[in-house]
Hints:
Strand content: 5-15%
Helix content: 40-55%
Structural class: mainly alpha
Distance between the termini: 116 Å
Radius of gyration: 40 Å
Number of helices: 10
Number of strands: 6
CATH superfamily of the largest domain: Winged helix-like DNA-binding domain superfamily/Winged helix DNA-binding domain
Strand order of the largest sheet: 1-3-2
Largest sheet: 3 strands, antiparallel
Order of helices and strands: HHHEHHEEHHHEEHHE
Number of domains: 3
CATH topology of the largest domain: Arc Repressor Mutant, subunit A
CATH architecture of the largest domain: Orthogonal Bundle
Amino acid sequence: MPSAAKKLSIVHNSEPVQDAASQDALQEGLESALEEVMQETLQETLQETLQETLQEALQEAEQDAAPQAGSRPEELRLLEALLFAADGPLDEATLKRPLPDGVDLKAALAMLQAEYATRGVNLVRIGKKWTFRTAGDLSWLLTKQTVETRKLSRAAIETLAIVAYHQPVTRAEIEEIRGVQTATGTLDVLLKTGWIRPRGRRKAPGRPLTYGTTENFLSHFGLEEVGDLPGLDELKGAGLLEGNMPAGFGVPMPSDDSTLRDDEDPLEPGDLDFGLAPPETMPEK
């Protein structure tokens, strides 16, 4: 079957005719051939344009994907996977273990923290460990409508403050600072909340237990470390301390370093098998 171009050539090269019927037929043939030629040309042009456009798009996509794949350090992906899969905060030793040799862990964590700073979850440090947490400005999304409030007594609040600022501290030392006897139930409540813990035993007559704060304490009060607790000037500014303080009054610099002090012995195997409120079998002196 001749193509439209051949048809047009045939019709164009035909001998001239004299009668009107032949002229009409010739005219129709020319118009039909021209239409077919135009359709074929248009289809070829569209196919070529489409192929060129697709090739250009594929080349641009490959060029865009290539730098993106290699721009993010592999150690960030590893840290991200570890932190998301963990059921709790991870310390730096655990995070560093699977990383390639030579990786600066602190720099990688700082980079990952900055990367997540504007996202729905943030990388935060709690004590000496790292974890992902919902961004502070989105916490309302996860707030339950029914909130069970457990109000601490004044004695419990005072005891918690003393433990936080003076740790490691014994029950007798808490009572000396407060000026009143501390009921066993007060420490029970704080141990039950998970905000304080037994640290060790004081190298003193009776070997009383020493207490310190926990990671739950830092997490609940939004602290990175216990050293972020307010100092004397901040407490005065908040109106929590009177303006006329006794001479020599000061607020100690708190530290929750888990390393035992020189005057502490480690806990014995049976010290933590007595429930939330460990009874001190020997009187404190």
